[in-house]
Amino acid sequence: MASKELLDMLNKAIAREIQVSIQYMWQHVQWKGVEGMAVKDELRNIAITEMKHAESIAERLNYLGGKPTTKPEPIFVGETLKEMIEQDKKDEEQAIELYKQIIDLCRKENDETTKKLFRDILGDEEGHHDTFTSLLEGM
After folding, report:
1. What is the pLDDT of residue 60?
2. Which homologous superfamily is 4-137 in?
């Protein structure tokens, strides 16, 4: 069975995924101008991917005997396009770090299924980080 530490980390991951799915969707809605039009759909797609991550992690946490949180981490929409993207890049960096820690803990607890789930999600998060990093290069 999963340790309390792992269950807590999965809930932290859920809270983070809920946060960014709302954050990115609201940024998508608020973006205006030429720059906004260029990335608006990409941000919407990333928001939807993040919500799917929250669902997958919640299903796994529930299976392991935990109770998924409904509370997001603090949401930061931002005022300017650059401010939004800088925050989004930072949020993805934090997710990458957390998910690597979860993968390491899964390895120690011999939980191959949760480890595989987070390895797959980690690949998505690295892609999102790359998107936000690339967007910042043009600003």
Report:
1. 98
2. Ferritin, core subunit, four-helix bundle (1.20.1260.10)
